[in-house]
Write a structure and sequence with these properties.
The protein has about 525 residues and is α/β, with parallel strands linked by helices. It contains 24 helices and eleven strands. It has a five-stranded parallel beta sheet with strand order 2-3-4-1-5, covered by helices on one side. The protein has a four-stranded mixed beta sheet with strand order 8-9-10-11, with helices on one face. Helix 14 packs across helix 15, helix 14 runs antiparallel to helix 16 and helix 16 runs antiparallel to helix 17. The longest helix has 20 residues.
């Protein structure tokens, strides 16, 4: 803020934020929306104006900006190839707000039927200075039902001198009767490279230096919104004259990417102590745990895309060095494991917004990630079953006479289910365990209602008539959580199984022996050998 030395007669000069200072004044200046600007310019050149336009899209993509440019273009005294000249008195008046024929209405605060009725009455008057009276209704989805009904009649039969421009981020909330009477334009999220180029151009005009990687990082944080990117750039310019990635991270409160790679390395190495230590270090440096959780799931998303796409660079916004490091980490995970890790982190992110201690939630998340198997149990079982089926239908070739016989591999004996059943005693803390399971998952906990559990050796055998609980226990993360809860309450580690009378197991039939082992673990398996 600047002020004249004579305070009594001083003139205050307020700082103008970047997103207002560098707001496009014509269609040619709009970044990343050619599907909108090209069509509008062609319609203006051909003098084919609609009486109502609907601009939809996420925040910060140019809906309000294009609305103002369109209001200037239809009223400009000297239009140039569909663009306003920005030099005539009408264009300047619309820019500074002195032209009363262009009215901006915030539907979030003016959403009643009386507001729309007043608008309808004003619309009947001819423009005072401009050619068209233009009404820009921002966040139009916030209008009440009665207000929409009042607006509908005007949209059906508008005066010839009136143009409506409706802007919204949630077009699905608009009645079909409204959308069908408007010419709709969808605004897309702006590409990160386009945002980065715009930021570099702004910094050049502001005589500020910015690294390309820093501009890309701001673009990634903005998530396709140019206004958000310029707002963050404004904050960064207040931090330093030369804007680097570190400047952006400190301003936005982001964790350094090295910490994300370090946390992932700890998960790969199953180094729980290292992971918890990193979380503590980030917490001591005032890093928000919820934001860290979002960044970590974003990092695992990067690994997932590298794992599944041929050209992931077309989507990912990162330096070559970071991409190479991420590609190396992606090789250490299977795709099911990456998806499982993302589920765990996403669940933690949702938990943090329910009032729990965010630091503890983050520490628990890292412990879960480091404790989980690098390959899901389902994947290993599928491979095992495939091997058994292959051996069953394609037995190994008979050994040649001159070959040295190899002694057969001794398979571990199947658990004696009859003995387990005879030694089973009622598991007293089962009720408390079920209540704790409900805190983890209400669906899983509810499926255990009415069940009984028995303990026999290192097994907890669940007796339930509800097949849903056993279906849910097929998921590795559910089984691991239930076992963890049992360990927390009892202090002992148990395997989970289903309390039932075991089928007869033939020692000379390895396939049936395998089926018995899988069923002991509580996993239903179809025994095809009995068909």
């Amino acid at each position: 803020m600047l002020c004249d030395k004579n305070f009594g007669k001083g003139v205050l000069k307020l700082y103008r934020v970047l997103y207002r200072k560098y707001r496009p004044k014509c269609f040619a200046d709009v970044i990343g929306q050619p599907q909108v600007t090209t069509t509008l310019k062609n319609e203006l050149k051909a003098d084919r104006l609609a009486h109502a336009y609907l601009f939809t899209g996420s925040r910060g993509t140019g809906k309000t900006t294009c609305s103002k440019i369109l209001s200037k273009a239809v009223n400009c005294l000297h239009p140039k190839d569909g663009d306003p000249c920005c030099e005539c008195e009408i264009c300047k008046g619309i820019d500074d707000g002195s032209i009363t024929d262009v009215v901006e209405i915030d539907a979030a605060s003016n959403n009643g039927v009386d507001d729309i009725r007043l608008l309808r009455e004003e619309a009947n008057f001819t423009p005072a200075e401009a050619k068209y009276r233009v009404y820009i209704i921002d966040e139009v989805h916030m209008l009440s039902v009665s207000a929409f009904n009042a607006l509908l009649k005007t949209l059906e039969e508008p005066p010839a001198h009136v143009i409506f421009i409706l802007a919204t981020t949630e077009v699905h909330k608009l009645p079909a009767t409204i959308t069908s009477r408007c010419q709709r334009f969808d605004f897309h999220r702006i590409a990160p490279e386009d945002i980065a180029k715009r930021l570099e151009n702004v910094c050049q005009q502001e005589q500020t230096s910015i690294d390309h990687d820093a501009a890309l990082l701001i673009a990634g944080i903005a998530d396709g919104a140019m206004r958000d990117a310029l707002s963050l750039l404004d904050q960064c310019m207040g931090q330093a004259e030369t804007i680097t990635e570190d400047t952006v991270r400190q301003t936005a409160g982001l964790a350094d990417k090295s910490h994300l790679f370090a946390l992932t390395d700890a998960v790969i190495a199953k180094d729980t102590a290292r992971a918890v230590s990193l979380v503590n270090e980030l917490h001591q440096n005032s890093k928000d745990m919820a934001r860290l959780c979002e960044e970590l799931v974003g990092h695992f998303r990067t690994l997932m895309l590298i794992k599944t796409m041929k050209t992931p660079k077309s989507i990912l916004v990162m330096s070559e060095q970071d991409f190479a490091a991420a590609a190396q980490q992606a090789q250490q995970f299977s795709l099911p494991c990456l998806l499982s890790c993302m589920d765990v982190i996403q669940s933690a992110s949702e938990t943090m917004f329910r009032g729990v201690n965010r630091r503890i939630a983050m520490e628990m998340t890292m412990v879960k990630l480091c404790s989980s198997s690098s390959d899901s149990l389902e994947l290993r079982l599928a491979a095992l079953e495939k091997t058994v089926e292959t051996l069953r239908f394609s037995p190994p070739p008979a050994p040649r006479k001159d070959s040295v016989p190899v002694p057969p591999i001794k398979r571990p004996a199947a658990p004696d289910m009859e003995k387990l059943r005879q030694e089973a005693v009622k598991f007293q803390p089962w009720h408390d365990i079920v209540e704790r399971i409900k805190q983890y998952s209400i669906t899983l906990g509810t499926s255990f209602e009415g069940s009984t559990a028995y303990v026999s050796g290192k097994y907890v055998l669940v007796d339930s008539k509800n097949e849903m609980c056993f279906e849910l226990l097929r998921k590795a993360e559910h089984r691991a959580e239930v076992r963890s809860i049992i360990q927390q309450i009892t202090g002992n580690t148990y395997h989970l199984g289903r309390y039932s009378y075991p089928e007869e197991v033939h020692a000379d039939d390895p396939l049936r022996q395998l089926v018995s082992e899988l069923k002991t673990a509580g996993i239903p398996v179809e025994d095809k050998s009995q068909k």
